## 1
Amino acid sequence: MTRLSHFLGFAALAAVTSAQAAELPAEIKQAGALKLTVNSTYAPMEYRDPATNELVGLDVDLANELAKRLGVKIVWSETPFAELIPSLQTRRADFIISGISDRASRRETADFVDYLGTGPQFFVMAESEAKAATDLCGKKVGTTRSTSFPVEIEKWSKQNCEPAGKTAIQYVPGENSIDVRNQLKQGRIDAAVQGSETLPYAQTQEPGKYRVIGEPFAKGYQGIMFRKDDVALREVVTEKLTAMIADGSYKVVLDKWGLGANAVAQPMLNAAPQ
């Protein structure tokens, strides 16, 4: 997306939310509840607290605050990451807020209100000999198969390994971030890729286990995903999220989970790069 189209998308979003207070769709207001589906394996965005089995995380906190401001409760359900988009399309979920990246290919049937900066990042076991990202050329690198990361790894490999006369990275698929980290710990892969928002948490949970290599090698956003025909719902959620950013409650949630640096200044419509 160009800088101009990024601006126009934001301007259109701002115009909608400032011209008139948006209304919650009648069926949701009547039910008094939002149906939200998450993949609870992506800490600290959404996961089951091992001590309490309670569903917690940054997305959970944001959604709960949004629901409070909308005057409704949330009926949560859980599903594998690959089923998040189908759950939206089949209306099992009213919208998706579950660590899902805004991608051009996903915008054919949905719109994203982007609320968090993200980017894929390499990491290895602490004892790995790899010091720089190019040390991973020719190595086995795992990531979750249903994310954008396999494509990003391939793109990075073509830009950095092949020009240097090195062998391309060997991508190894995983079911989710937990599976990928287990493959890494078992020595089945040499390195892994996760979103930059998840690694600080993983490192605090297993101190000294992992080592991040370099900076995120692509830039993107996570977004709240809406069906394209659910304009009213998208507008009212955007309005409430804009208010949360303005009054500081958004920052409180991000800081709680150690992700203040991933904050956005305003919600953005379909703003991730193409």
Note: The CA atoms of residues 50 and 181 lie 17 Å apart.
## 2
Amino acid sequence: MKKLIFLLISLFLIEAVSGQEMYRLPENTSTRWASAENWKAEKGKGGMRNGGRKGSPCYTLKAGATQILAESSGSAGIVRRIWITIDKRTPKTLRGIKLEMFWDEAKTPAVSVPLGDFFGQGLGEMKAFENDFFSSPEGRSFNCFIPMPFRKSMKIQVTNISDENIVMFYDVDYTLGDKLDKDVLYFHAFFNHQEKTIPRSDYEIIPKLNGRGRFLGVNFSVIANMNNYLTTWWGEGEVKMYVDGDTDYPSLSGTGTEDYIGTGYGLGEYCHRYQGCTFADHKGMRFAFYRYHVPDPVIFYSDLKVTIQQIGFTTDKKVMEQLSGLGKPIIATGEKPEPIDFSVPHNYIMFERSDDYASCAYFYLSEPENKLVRQPF
């Protein structure tokens, strides 16, 4: 009963802080916009330079520099929208700008991720898309609409870890004075990247995470290994979620990668509210896709781990002949990892793979720090 009550309260609060009841006027709540024209979001001090005639709409983020986008202390509040655009939107800059968020004077960030991956542009190429959490209307900007509550303070900053100077425009829109119940959770994000995943060692979307919270979902990017597996289908891997004490086997298990994001029998481009594929390059075997758990909440009370397998599949006999001639062992799935015997005819093969996987996962947690080991970009 206690868990059910906590779940209902959590869902109600998530809906409340996201602004669902727009017709209600809250008490003692003020709206703030942090931008290059007024990064402290001070009352009556926006756009003061150049006599108020667009004197400071952007700034140059120099190579190696850190810039605070928004900072507030002494009051509870909710970050409600983040918008950014930059002059150089290349693979180097999309992974070369580190976005960090700190809640309630925490020493370590709740978010420390590449700008592009956080906003759903994980392959280093901008795509126009829209979903419930993020959008890029014409593939030139970054928008986030996930509500991010804080009780005492917040700080959002970017660091340029590339070797190029970058011009940045931005808005961080938030409210102050919000009344937050004790069960309101903090927003977190975790980035992971493996250029070569290890066969039969499931890729970790979120390593084991301790605490109470809610898994919100994930943005993925995959570059399939054409040298080893040609253009065979790479997405038979199942998503596994180990919840509240699960050990060898999870409580939540999907059926395949494209199944997890709501489609089937392969992957093409589409963008829906909670699931989609923004990039499907079948010639270059590069894919970017997402799944958000808004209508189907993933709640945890003590711990959570989220993984995905790397499993391939083909029914093409000519492709099987090509694979057999590459001189590299193709390992079958199953309890015992054994090379596939191509001298025996097969109607299909299902096999373990090693591909390039990157992901940015989002979750709410009861604490402002998550203690996960941050991954290099």
Note: Residues 4-17 have pLDDT under 50 and may be disordered.
## 3
Amino acid sequence: MDKIPDNRAWWLVLPVFLLVAFSALIPLMTVVNYSVQDIFGPGQAYYVGTEWFKEVLTDERLQASLIRQFAFSGAVLLIQIPLGIGVALMMPKSGIKGSLCLILVAIPLLIPWNVVGTIWQIFARGDIGLFGWAINEIGIDYNYTGDTVDAWLTVLLMDVWHWTPLVALLCYSGLRAIPEAFYQAAEIDRASKWAVFRYIQLPRLKSVLIIAVLLRFMDSFMIYIEPFVLTGGGPGSSTTFLSQTLTTMAIGQFDLGRAAAFSLIYFLIVLLISWLFFTAITHADKEK
């Protein structure tokens, strides 16, 4: 006789689902309401339909911010994923050295985002910062506050330093989950280190890497505090990403209607990319 499943445990997590749904639904509905109105102040709102969406989609400044955002997120993935895999492969498997490496690698993840921006703001200065002073001493004219390329590379380097440990820790956990029998079989077959990585470690890291790519892309796509503290979006608008443009529009200019429409488009982009990654993860699990 088939056993009837007991689903009463779902009642225990139902309050959490309701609380999360309530806390997410109210702000979202407020943004949707603002996106179709022109708001001048309390009680002064006029219905404009889809006018703000049309303006946002044709705004050259927002399009430029979107291009910078995708370029930054793409550069982050191209650097951090291979670098994180390399760090994970070099870390000791167990023992005191392994524990010490885990602690050292995880330190940047414990630093608050605004503190990271402040650290690099001082670290990259040409007069008192060790990094900026060293770059200038070897003959390179480096000034992240006045040169757009220097500013871009500094923000990218800061993000690599801050978040590559997350990729390394995820890959490390994936490597430790590989059964020892696979390595023993490779040793018997006299497989090279590259062959072990290509045919044993990398395939087993597929799901972990997809999760790492998802987390890093989403986080880099919504980056705000670090570049705001480090460069303020400058020089010019070279490091002004979507989140900073949205904040300036909503708070600095008090243009709530356009900001609400922009935030909904922003939300849909993030949702679409998340769905694509979720589909990729589900497809990878089915292939196992």
Note: The mean pLDDT is 85.
## 4
Amino acid sequence: MNHLVERKQRKVLVGSVASRSGDKSIKVVFFYKRPHSLYRKEIKRKTVLHVHDADNVCNVGDKVEIMSTRPLSHMKRWRVVRVLEKIQA
């Protein structure tokens, strides 16, 4: 029996920081398009994710790459992998 079990790939998304909601926490907005069930026109949708920012490096407007992780708090199931684009303030 092999004791070295490989983990599955975790989900990775790219989104923009919508708000800083407390210490080491941010909200990331992920936009996507889905076709309407009857008319097939593409409809814009968004998902707001609560993300763990361990180093407090993200600001509102930054483009970040996030990865799914174990539950870190009541709402946080994602963490920041890296900041792709910093907003000029």
Note: The radius of gyration is 16 Å.
